[in-house]
Design goal:
Cell Cycle, Spindle Assembly Checkpoint Protein, Chain A; alpha+beta; 4 helices; five-stranded antiparallel β-sheet; 29% strand; two-stranded antiparallel sheet
């Protein structure tokens, strides 16, 4: 990732493009982790890869890789245009048609601080070390990995979809369509940790369908 310049005068300076690379990289590995941990795809279809100082799992399915690469490419454009608001991964039961889980990655633009003299610090490049950013992302990925300990068992075959929320001024390419938000009625929600590049802050929330008393028997 190209978010940290390597000269003494600009060490740890974060650029918009660098922050965009960090955020979209996270999206790629987070989505892969959810698909693996929640059993949406067979575990044999994933390979181990070292990332963020830990072992992650990424798909080896060529069709899925192509789909994710295309989505990530478009997310980069919307981030650079400052139009991306959130990415949502929905897991849907193929038999019931119900939305069982909704993983929401909210993107916030970090506010630049106001200096003591009252002037705006917007012209100053934000700074944060690569190590600090990596540690924060590692913590989020670890929580996704441990999600099997608190999320209900998915007891039917599942598929997934990615929903993207943007501002009104975003340019939407052909092939992208409006979608139902796939909300979950009577859901429970768990907030995971967030990470920040000093330009973007990403919060992760997972919502899941509650089991009824009858379903629990």
């Amino acid at each position: 990732m190209a978010s940290v310049a390597q000269t003494s005068s600009t060490e740890n300076v974060i650029t918009l493009r660098g922050s965009t690379d960090v955020v979209t990289d996270f999206f790629y590995y987070a989505v892969n982790s959810v698909l693996y941990q929640r059993g949406v795809y067979h575990p044999d279809g994933f390979a181990r890869e070292a990332k963020y100082g830990i072992t992650t799992l990424v798909t080896t399915d060529e069709a899925l890789k192509k789909y994710l690469d295309n989505v990530i490419k478009q997310l980069k454009e919307w981030l650079l245009e400052k139009e991306l608001q959130r990415l949502v991964l929905v897991i849907v039961g193929t038999d019931s048609g119900d939305t069982l889980e909704r993983w929401t990655f909210n993107v916030h633009k970090e506010e630049r601080p106001v200096l003591k003299d009252g002037s705006n610090a917007g012209d100053q490049q934000p700074r944060k070390s690569q190590k600090a950013i990596t540690q924060e992302i590692q913590n989020v990925i670890r929580q996704i990995t441990s999600s099997v300990t608190f999320l209900p068992l998915l007891d039917e075959p599942c598929s997934f979809d990615l929903l993207v929320y943007t501002g009104n001024d975003a340019t939407v390419p052909s092939g992208w369509d409006d979608s139902d938000p796939r909300c979950i009625k009577d859901s429970s929600e768990v907030s995971l940790r967030s990470f920040s590049t000093k330009i973007h802050k990403v919060d992760t929330v997972v919502s899941y369908k509650n089991k009824t008393d009858e379903e629990l028997c």
